[in-house]
Amino acid sequence: MTESRIIRAAAAQIAPDLHEASKTLARVLDAIDNAAAQGAEIIVFPETFVPYYPYFSFITPAMTAGAAHLKLYDQAVVVPSPLTHTVGERARLRGIVVVLGVNERDRGTLYNTQLVFDSSGELVLKRRKITPTYHERMIWGQGDGAGLKVVETAVGLVGALACWEHYNPLARYSLMTQHEEIHCSQFPGSLVGPIFAEQMDVTIRHHALESGCFVINATGWLTEEQINELTSDPALQKGLRGGCNTAIISPEGRHLVPPLTEGEGILVADLDMALITKRKRMMDSVGHYARPELLSLRLDATPARYVVTRDDGAETGGDRNAECTVSPAADH
């Protein structure tokens, strides 16, 4: 029998501060402490949680969204920075893996970025959402294949995707081929309405089944006061409610605890890693159930370069994602 290894996991559904990144960071640190006090060894936060998901872009015409967009630039996260150092230090202090979604600022462009801090505090993955969805394309730039990778952490092999990247089967398959054991998914929450939560449930459970891994999913939450602050139009407010489905899923596609669809809270569940082998014994999508001679994936994992310079026959180029792995102690 496969030896059982139990990992305690946590998923956070909390509201950001819609004005200051430092206040959202304080909520992140409190949630890390809370989860660690319950014995959690990994915690996942919602999509672009710091400073906040750009909800304004879903309900505001582009012509009038400039001020809110510039405000997001001002509050966005540089990687590395004192903010990422603070999260890394808290991860190290509590001995917990932290998966945090941020709006990353790289000079003149914002990115939807997922950060994975190991329990040592080291930033082991920085990846950018490869294709922002719908209204998000007015806010963020595109990521590249360099971020489609699984990393070794204290809790095992961890992969991550953001929101509707889960509707890109080849993006998911790229992580499956790297044998992810724990998949961390992030959605904004408080968006679109109940149908978004229903679709999300199908999506994350299907990935757990197909990949034969655990899925930890985190969605954000907006309070009624925040919704009223974003818009006073009742019709538009409907688009800022629902869409929450924070959950922890087993490789058999089952909820390990009831999902959190309203309000704030932290879900905690134990992951029996032996269930991965139990699932893959019957259906391993990247092993005995695969047909690579018929179907295969071509992945370009080269970091995107904006310019290639030739000097005496040698090529050099600027890599926009060069600091993908960086120690949190290395503040710039």
TrEMBL record:
This is Aliphatic nitrilase. NCBIfam families: nitrile_sll0784 (TIGR04048). GO terms for molecular function: nitrilase activity. It holds the Pfam family CN_hydrolase. Residues 311-322 have a biased composition (Basic and acidic residues). Residues 311-332 are annotated as: Disordered. InterPro entries: C-N_Hydrolase (IPR003010), C-N_Hydrolase_sf (IPR036526), Nitrilase (IPR023919), Nitrilase/CN_hydratase_CS (IPR000132), Nitrilases_CHs (IPR044149). It comes from Erwinia typographi. It comes from the Bacteria.
